[in-house]
User: What shape does this take?
Amino acid sequence: IDEPGIANEIASGVVPLSTGVMTDLAVIEIEIPRDGFIVLYGKCYVNLSGTTGANGAQIQIDADSGGTAIYPYYTQSGFSGFVNTGDNYLPVFVTRTYYREAGLHEFRLEGKATHPLPAVAETWDHILTAMYFPTAYGWVYSSSKSSEGNPTAVPMEQNSPDRSGVIYKLDLRYEKDSRTDGK
Assistant: This one.
């Protein structure tokens, strides 16, 4: 079989986030019959409380457990200040695409807090969906901090408020090792 396929994981429990490494929120496995693209969609809610100061969370999809936020694949959620220390609920959505060889692959929706106590960040109602496509009908890109000798590398200026410098846009099919997520 070489047709598209789908897998879905739901983890509804409340998960407190820390400022250390990323915490797994939902983990999914998908087995693909041929080399191809895996498109992942993740969704959850973040509750920020405990302070009137800055509070936030970073949520991303990754193939490896733990680690740090990988630009530009995370979603930043939060504010620089709150009117009270009560609950503040925010929806979060993230997506990411990988190119993988045939076989079984594991991915995770993960998150971490961006501010220490007394700021509290927690998540719940996590959904992670993986869709397999054996063929692409156009370019499918990834990003990396270096060109890694990739012949398709195109430098791009980072225009995000918390990043500056150059990253490289790479065709996923030609990455040196697409399993390393640029780490």
Q: What stands out?
A: The CA atoms of residues 4 and 133 lie 5 Å apart. The mean pLDDT is 88. The radius of gyration is 17 Å.
